[in-house]
């Protein structure tokens, strides 16, 4: 019982820390004195490997992609995987840093909860559409209907497309990526 309470408290403190980091990262552009140069995910991987002191694990004359591969081997990557030439987003940064600090289980649980909620909302809206028109629209038409999704189609935290392959007018449950629950500190302890 006490361990569970401590675990919940540590998760709460961790989330508060990262949320406060999110506020700092996403601060008002006018409040910033100097605009920051955007960083690609690959550049971030290089900096992360340097800051973690992992250069010894890289091959001789390593390229930026080798840093990405090294981090991936420790299951340290954004939810949608590394997209080397794309700019690093706040979400990607927070997920990677959570994984570096051994909180990948928490990140995965939150992403699954979001995914399940999105699927629930889509299925409810699909049913509402049918009740209003007495005919089924395709999933694609539903997701792009501004009456049901005014802000555009919902996006999966894992970057997966929503499908209805069995034509039962419900979003298919799909395989969610399994995150290797390896704590990077443990993996690096045998250097």
Can you describe what's shown?
Helix 1 (2-25) packs antiparallel against helix 4 and helix 4 (90-100) packs across helix 5. Helices cover 50% and strands 0% of the residues. Residues 18-35 and 178-191 have low confidence and may be disordered. It is elongated. The chain has helices at 2-25, 41-51, 64-73, 90-100, 104-133, 139-143, 184-188. The protein is mainly alpha-helical and 191 residues long. It has 7 helices and no strands.
Break the fold down into its secondary structure elements and pairings.
Layout: H1 2-25, H2 41-51, H3 64-73, H4 90-100, H5 104-133, H6 139-143, H7 184-188
Helix pairs in contact: 1-4, 2-3, 4-5
Labels describing this entry:
mainly alpha, 191 residues, 7 helices
- CA(first)-CA(last) distance: 36 Å
Low-pLDDT runs of 5+ residues are 18-35, 178-191
Note the beta-strand portion. Answer: under 5%
Count of alpha/pi helices: 7
How helix-rich are the residues, as a percent range?
A: 40-55%
Rg over CA atoms, rounded to whole Å, is: 20 Å
Average residue pLDDT: 78
Order of helices and strands: HHHHHHH
Shape: elongated
The secondary-structure class comes to mainly alpha
User: What is the number of E strands?
Assistant: 0
Largest sheet: none
């Amino acid at each position: 019982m006490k361990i569970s309470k401590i675990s919940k408290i540590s998760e709460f403190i961790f989330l508060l820390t990262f949320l406060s980091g999110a506020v700092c990262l996403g601060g008002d552009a006018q409040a910033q004195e100097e605009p920051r140069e955007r960083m690609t995910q690959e550049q971030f991987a290089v900096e992360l490997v340097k800051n973690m002191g992992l250069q010894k694990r890289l091959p001789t004359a390593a390229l930026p992609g080798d840093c990405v591969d090294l981090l991936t081997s420790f299951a340290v990557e954004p939810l949608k995987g590394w997209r080397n030439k794309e700019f690093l987003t706040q979400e990607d940064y927070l997920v990677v840093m959570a994984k570096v600090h051994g909180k990948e289980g928490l990140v995965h649980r939150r992403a699954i909860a979001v995914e399940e909620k999105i699927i629930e909302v889509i299925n409810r809206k699909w049913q509402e559409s049918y009740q209003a028109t007495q005919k089924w629209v395709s999933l694609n038409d539903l997701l792009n209907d501004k009456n049901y999704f005014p802000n555009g189609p919902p996006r999966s935290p894992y970057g997966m497309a929503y499908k209805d392959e069995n034509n039962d007018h419900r979003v298919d449950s799909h395989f969610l990526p399994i995150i290797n629950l390896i704590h990077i500190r443990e993996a690096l302890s045998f250097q």
